[in-house]
Amino acid sequence: MTVIHQDPQGLVQAEPAGTLDDTQTVLRLEGVDKRYPGVHALKNVSLDVRRGEVHALVGENGAGKSTLVGVAAGAVLPEQGSVQICGASTDSPTPQWSREQGLAIVYQEPALLPHLTVAENMRLGMPKALRPAVRDQDRWAEGILEGWKNVASIDPRSLVGSLKPDARFVVEIARAMAEDPKVIVLDEPTEHLLPAAVEELFHLIDAVVRRGGAVVYISHKINEVKKIANTISVLRDGALEGTFPAADMSEQDIVDLVVGHQKSREAARTTTLDPAAPVQLKINELSGHGFSHLNLEVRKGEIVGFAGIEGQGQRDALRALAGLSRTKGSVTINGGDVRLGSTTTAMRDGIVYLPHDRHNEGIFSRLSLRENASIGSIAQFAKAGAVSSRQEQKTVIQQFAALRVKAPSAEVDIDTLSGGNQQKVVLSRVLLGGSPVLLADEPTQGVDVGARGEIYQILRTAAAGGASIIVLSSSAAELEELCDRVIVFSRGQAAKELTGEEVSERRITEAALTASQHRAVSTEASRPEKKWKRQLAENDLMPGGVLLVATIVLGIVASSQSSFYLTPRNFGLVLPLVAILAFFAIAQQLVMMVGAIDLSVGPLAGFLVVLGSFVLSEFRSPVGIAIGILIVTLAAVAVGVINWFLTTIVKITPLIATLVTFTALQGFAYLLRPLPGGRMDPNFTDMVTSSFGFLPWMLAGAIAVALGLEVTLHKSLFGVRLRAVGSNPATAKKVGVKSNLVVLAAYVGCSVLVVPASLLLMAQAGTGNASIGDSYTLASIGAVVLGGASIFGGRGSFLGAIMGAILVIQANTVVQFLGLQMYWQQWFIGGLTLAAAAFYSKTRSLSERM
């Protein structure tokens, strides 16, 4: 904590002081210390935030700002220190605790789950007392988003993954504001927002302050901080430099404290461009989605800026040049034609791209800095297919040194770095390729003032080395600082070119506004309505409908070949097989919802059949049968717990963990029954195989279970949490989901759902057979994939899984009726699975572009 005074020279300084009035303090962080491997992220930081103030937190990337607010929000657990929110205090904060005490947070990267709808995301992140009923969530979310309709039209029923970055931030901010928080933390909230949305956000911040709330505002944009902050705290290298009244601080004072030394304002723009430099990049009549008729020549060593009001086609043009969309027209580099429409061919022909969406398109999460930097140019370090690790590491380290990447080593995970250093690593990858053309989309987005200047110098150095560079930036000041020329876009076309003295912040802004004043219809608005196509692609029941059609077609083919197909006797033989695979598919779908695959379901069934041959053997009373089924169920629960323990606590990859269980279960089953033996109780067998006409009761039960789970998946809080964990476990944790318990429920539920399938197999075999379930592991995975499930989690349908099971059995049956060899069954199912996976993946990826 600090008091503020002026020294005789007029410089603002800070020094320790006594305790602030606790009744005015809504957030207190006391003695917070946090370390990561090789990094002391926070060094005994104490901070007070008072009612009715906007408290800005500034500092370079890696200074500890996001870590500090992460501690306050319960997303980061400190080694020492405490958090106090409105009088309640703890040294072990959790997201649930912080939220319930009245703190809401908007993270630098929105804590939203891509496979959940907007309304589901908003409801999941709300405190329990404010959480609406599931049936009301769409209407509730629509009411909250109504205040943003002038800046973003967002359907609460849309999947978050289909939204553009600015719309995702609107959803996150709207959700946080809807919590009616006593203190709200905004971590770089304006980075992806359009100007109108920024103004709306500032109005909302003002409303929070006027009603007595508090706002913690993190930003690298000093002008924003000066505009709205009452108080400013500066962090540097994990330590608090001081807390100051914003009115007493000039922008230069803030910059000096942030970088730790007196830093003059950016020098006036200079250029080293040779007027006689040859044309290196030539674009002729290039047209694509969002833009048309682009003609441009860029000389060797020249930096050209793309400007304009957001959505005028400049980003579409830049991404098209990078090969990320289809185009018409021609592009040449040093006289050689460039094949567009593919990033691979664009890179091969000399174009590299620095994306603006760093987290989704720039970095390779969980890979090291070295791997992230070298992956685009790995071929230059290889001879005869073998990579020279020494040369790769040496080159990457040299590049990191040149770009001043701050990290313990080149081998640390890139996720541990600050945003600015991550951006430098991505820039390293771009520069290592040595390509003649560099496309930079918002190169300093989310970067602090110190790193911003370094990136400017990196780009200037690349241009001086002969690269032709196109920079897209929403900051006119940035374009003035960097560019030799600026192209202003309007209505999808290059409307104005600024050169020489015209390249100024004022002229760029003026040109963008003037060019857009008479816009009649936006490119986006002129696109045909595709909402129904997106909704169809996003609907997890759509694959099940496709499988139903395929099943009917196969049935018509089979019935045309044999009159026996449509008989009760045939259905009486086939439907029990459907019931068995249906339960396996439902079980597999449950665990795949959390992003795992359970390879042990088949051997588990074999083990349970063997166990049943002992506990459900002949001459059992009804009570004895019930006890036997209970024992089998408890054994299944134990296996589910073991799988959860191996994957979640021991942290073994699910495929490896369940493969271990697979082998162990097979071993135990053969130990108990080396050869098939024992005899099941006839009363038990009759009970399990009973039917209504030719419809087995167990199949009706499987359909009922699937319906119940389908409703649970979309209409209950547990179902939303299940999909949330599968969608993104880290984000789910940030919004308060207890991921470990959700995964435990998935694994145990999967094993329990194998029990009815095992009971059917017991009745089918009549004896204990250790190998009877082995073939169902792959069959269950195939059925679930056919049903539209994502192997990465978060997407899928239990009804789709049953339709997948029906199609698998139907295909096997039709192959027999057509008189084909048995291997055709495997080929047919394998081909269908591959086709289905490719079709669903393509459909969903296209839906995100609609």
From TrEMBL:
GO cellular component term of the entry, any: plasma membrane
Which first-to-last residue range defines the signal peptide?
Answer: none
* Pfam families the UniProt entry points to: ABC_tran, BPD_transp_2
Keyword Calcium assigned to the entry: answer is no
Which parts pass through the membrane?
Answer: 541-558, 570-587, 623-645, 652-672, 692-713, 741-763, 775-792, 799-818, 824-841
The record places domain ABC transporter at 27-262, 268-516
The name this protein goes by in its record: ABC transporter ATP-binding protein
Q: How does it sit in the membrane?
A: Multi-pass membrane protein
Identify the keywords attached in UniProt to this record, alphabetized.
ATP-binding, Cell membrane, Membrane, Nucleotide-binding, Repeat, Sugar transport, Translocase, Transmembrane, Transmembrane helix, Transport
Q: Where is this protein primarily located?
A: membrane
Q: Has the keyword Nucleotide-binding been applied to this entry? A: yes
Enumerate the InterPro entries for this protein.
AAA+_ATPase (IPR003593), ABC_carbohydrate_import_ATPase (IPR050107), ABC_transp_permease (IPR001851), ABC_transporter-like_ATP-bd (IPR003439), ABC_transporter-like_CS (IPR017871), P-loop_NTPase (IPR027417)
Q: Which GO terms describe its molecular function?
A: ATP binding; ATP hydrolysis activity; transmembrane transporter activity
List the subcellular locations: Cell membrane
Against Gene3D superfamilies, the record matches this protein to:
P-loop containing nucleotide triphosphate hydrolases (3.40.50.300)
